[in-house]
Amino acid sequence: MSLQRHKHRNEHWVVVSGCATVTINDKTFMLHQNESTYIKAGELHRLLNATDELLVIIEAQVGSYTGEDDIERIEDDYKRD
Predict the structure, then answer these.
(1) Concatenated DSSP letters of the chain
(2) pLDDT tens for residues 3-33?
(3) Neighbours of 41 (CB within 10 A)
(4) Is the pTM of this model over 0.90?
(5) What gap in Å lies between CA 51 and CA 69, rounded to an integer?
């Protein structure tokens, strides 16, 4: 996933299966099945599956606005705006 941030929403990520490598600001850590993290509005964040195992997460977005145009991509391998 791109390195991104949002102005108007917070996100909760819960790992259903697999292992996620999560970056929030300058911290990178692993989340395993049944673990979760919280990303506050304005925080830089990225999600990566660095294993061969399928990664399944649930993302809950909470905030005053959750539209796609609230994504500010800082780095993106797919060159999306």
Answers:
(1) --EEEESSEEEEEEEEES-EEEEETTEEEEE-TT-EEEE-TT--EEEE--SSS--EEEEEEEES---GGGEEEEE-TT---
(2) 999 999 999 999 999 999 999 999 999 999 9
(3) 15
(4) no
(5) 30
Give tens-digit pLDDT for 25-58: 999 999 999 999 999 999 999 999 999 999 999 9
How far CA 30 is from CA of 14, 59, 63, 64, 80, in Å, comes to 12, 16, 25, 29, 26
Tell me the one-letter amino acid at 74.
Answer: I
